[in-house]
Write a structure and sequence with these properties.
Largest sheet: 4 strands, mixed
Radius of gyration: 40 Å
Number of domains: 3
Mean pLDDT: 76
Low-confidence stretches: 178-197
Strand content: 15-25%
Order of helices and strands: HHHHHHEEEHEEE
Helix content: 25-40%
Oligomer: single chain
Length: 197
Amino acid sequence: MKRPVYRVRDRALLAAASRILPCRCRRAFLVRPETMMCWHRRLVARKWTRTRRGPGRPGLGPEIQALVLRLARENPRWGYVRIKGECQKLGIAVSATAIAVLLRRSGIAHAPRRRPTWSQFLKAQASGTIACDFFTVETVLLKALYVRFFIEIGTRRAHASVSTSKRNSVFVASRQTVTLAPSASASLLCFPWARSD
């Protein structure tokens, strides 16, 4: 005679019956008590075990995906943050990262930058930007002079300005007057040469 094969429902019924029936009636079962206790433990564990989902946030629903893709196609200059804001106005909570991932997966390029990058900004402003720094010069008598110089970022021309032997906060913070050369041929900035000792 073959051993009976118990399905999940059979195991659940026998495990539940074993808890209700007295001990002397359990001998009528075709399985050992340890096996029934094991089935009962599994039944209890299944009751209290929650279904696990994968790590990370839950994915966007198909309706939200369709809405985000529609907003991106109809408004090509909108970025992730703008689409997120429009979804929030509609009462839909979605992160900008989820929108970015969805658009990348769908083959939609991100919105073009409306602000220049730092290097683009510097190139655009280079003709009117002047940087200031210091260098030292040793005299014949080994006395150190601190020279302030300016550099035009656009043309990369350097102009020495003021020198001093005593470097202090007054020297560093003093303002240097910068005037534009009056002649059109001289497009350099002119600095009055002054020495403050």
